[in-house]
Specification:
With 589 residues, the protein is of the alpha+beta class. Helices cover 31% and strands 20% of the residues.
């Protein structure tokens, strides 16, 4: 390992350049230099290797099968049909296993080798998409409620989120010099970074915009959250954006066996008007920059900064930096934190179709719920071609596009009525209509990538999801509630990329084939779950769940969620400290 700390690497990197150009040009190895493996994250990529064949290659005296994951920066997960087709071509040319939708509404490409890394980055840029700041100790892809075209207010929220994403980008030109061959100019390597400074943030930073009654971005899991408050317009019946409640200090990451680390729900600190969000976001980010823990990385997220200094202190610091006081938070209510599948209609009469994409993986040849091979990549390519032709034929009209959801699903948005029947037929032809057949457990399930490529994974997640979901489905059917809308999430490690601590049932990887069983979150994203059984394998997981599901089927109240039942029946208990600090929440059915 490098003798340099991450803080040293950032500070000495010449604004994220390091020796990346030299690493990329080295023909002897498929790897980057150790310090450059840290720096490339800020450019949107992680170096990985195939852990399935690591031992085989070691015995053959070969270096690991290195490759790179690349993540896009797509605020709110919006891509045009033309961009979709270019990303599809990139996936089939340079990557493995198709496209993958992440829980932050970005695309990930897996299996890109070093010699093709620059060509892949340039192809992504040619699609008018970049990967800058998609990873690393900066603000990452901004998550937004998935379908802003349901109302004009939704569109306003998305536009503000996209503008904030641009505002919080690093100023360095390193990305453009290294990947796009931009000529270096005077001052290159010492650009002013007024928001991030020379060491950037202590750790990663995440922002989400939620629009009640849907909490599809899990806003309380974000370092910084904006909950849209939409007042009804009595003149035309549409919603008007009044502003946002601001949440701070959410985060899912933890370390097994270390009580100094923990998941935390964001705390509501006040209300801001739409014109104040940039100032408030800048204040929150720079406060974290200046006061976040740079000595212990596992304690460097904003949640620990707030808990170490106190929420009242942090609110005052944000107000001081923003230059105005926050107003009292306004009441709001969330009904659920999942996606709503199938067809819906916006205020303008256009149609939107939400498709279920298991674990976000868009690829031909994967098996569906019936064990049959699907053609999701080909089907969505055909749909994108049709939508691109329609957009080209009517350039002045509202344009159809795709929206990635924070639950790894896909919205085909803004479809004209004349195309609805044709798009619907294609979803059936290419097996994209599984939302019609899958029960709620399967539709809502989330999983991170985990093995074989994630270096942090302790257990399977994405590859294990179909098996464990099928076995939990069997328990639900045995006890007469096959349609119970339970949220199940799997993470290969405690870092929590699939937001497992907000699952009614969650498995957090502990070792190969072994997980911590977490229970008791709600279905609105407003309560963390708690540890129920530690370090257990599948038979023990199913044995633990069986009597709980039996009792739930017999004793649940009307429309009561599984997590709510477990809390009411004292199977799990709510932590003493509610980190939301008395937010004015209306619980919606």
């Amino acid at each position: 390992m490098s003798a340099h700390s991450v803080e040293d690497i950032k500070q000495q990197s010449a604004r994220l350049r390091g020796s990346l150009l030299q690493s990329l040009a080295d023909p002897v190895t498929g790897s980057l230099r150790e310090d450059d493996q840290t720096l490339i994250k800020y450019h949107g990529s992680y170096q990985q290797d195939d852990r399935d064949i690591r031992d085989e290659r070691r015995l053959a005296k070969l270096e690991p099968a290195y490759s790179f994951m690349i993540r896009t920066r797509t605020p709110g997960g919006v891509v045009t049909p033309a961009q979709w087709l270019k990303l599809d071509a990139i996936a089939t040319t340079f990557a493995e296993r198709g496209l993958r939708i992440t829980t932050r509404q970005a695309f990930q490409f897996h299996g890109v080798i070093k010699t093709e890394l620059k060509a892949t980055m340039q192809a992504i840029n040619a699609a008018l998409i970049d990967t800058l700041a998609a990873c690393g100790d900066v603000n990452r892809n901004v998550a937004v409620a998935a379908n802003p075209h349901l109302s004009a207010a939704h569109a306003t929220v998305h536009a503000q989120a996209a503008a904030l994403s641009e505002h919080l980008l690093p100023n360095t030109r390193a990305y453009y010099e290294i990947w796009l061959d931009e000529e270096r100019v005077a001052g290159s390597g010492s650009e002013d970074e007024p928001i991030y400074g020379e060491r950037y943030l202590p750790r990663k930073f995440k922002i989400g915009f939620a629009i009640p009654p849907t909490n599809d971005v899990d806003v309380f899991a974000q370092d910084l959250g904006f909950i849209a408050i939409i007042d009804e317009n009595s003149v035309d019946g549409t919603g008007v954006l009044a502003g946002y409640n601001v949440t701070v200090g959410g985060g899912m990451g933890a370390t097994h066996g270390d009580p100094e680390t923990y998941p935390r729900l964001g705390s509501v600190i006040g209300f801001v008007t739409p014109d104040q969000i940039t100032a408030v976001a800048t204040a929150v980010v720079t406060a974290q920059r200046d006061f976040g823990n740079r000595e212990v990385r596992k304690r460097a997220r904003l949640k620990y900064t707030i808990d170490d200094h106190g929420l009242d202190w942090f609110r005052s610091e944000v107000e001081r930096r923003a230059g105005f006081p926050l107003l009292p938070a306004r009441p709001f209510g969330f009904a659920h934190n999942g996606d709503r599948f199938g067809w819906s209609t916006g205020e303008d009469g256009r149609f939107h179709l939400t498709l279920r994409i298991p674990a976000g993986r868009i690829v031909d040849g994967a098996l569906d719920d019936l064990g049959e091979a699907v053609r999701h990549l080909s089907g969505l390519r055909r749909i994108a071609q049709i939508l691109e032709a329609a957009n080209t034929a009517a350039p002045d009209a509202q344009q159809a596009h795709f929206r990635l959801t924070a639950n790894q699903n896909l919205v085909i948005a803004n479809i004209v009525p004349d195309l609805r029947e044709r798009i619907d037929a294609l979803t059936t032809e290419y097996e994209l209509d599984s939302w019609r057949r899958a029960n709620p457990l399967r539709r809502n399930a989330l999983a991170c990538v985990a093995l074989p490529t994630c270096g942090l994974a302790m257990a399977e997640a994405e590859r294990y999801l179909p098996d464990i979901v099928g076995k939990v489905e069997a328990l639900l059917a045995r006890h007469g509630i096959p349609g119970a809308p339970i949220h199940l999430r799997i993470s290969g490690c405690p870092n929590g990329c699939s937001r497992p601590y907000l699952g009614e049932i969650a498995l957090v990887g502990k070792a190969p084939g072994r997980y911590n069983l977490m229970l008791g979150a709600d279905h609105r994203g407003q309560r963390l779950n708690t540890l129920y059984r530690e370090n257990i394998a599948e038979p023990e997981i199913l044995d633990a769940l069986d009597p709980l599901i039996r009792d739930y089927a017999r004793e649940k109240h009307f429309d009561e969620g599984f997590g709510d039942f477990l809390v009411r029946s004292a199977v799990v208990s709510i932590p003493d400290k509610d980190t939301r600090n008395g937010i004015p929440v209306k619980v919606l059915a």
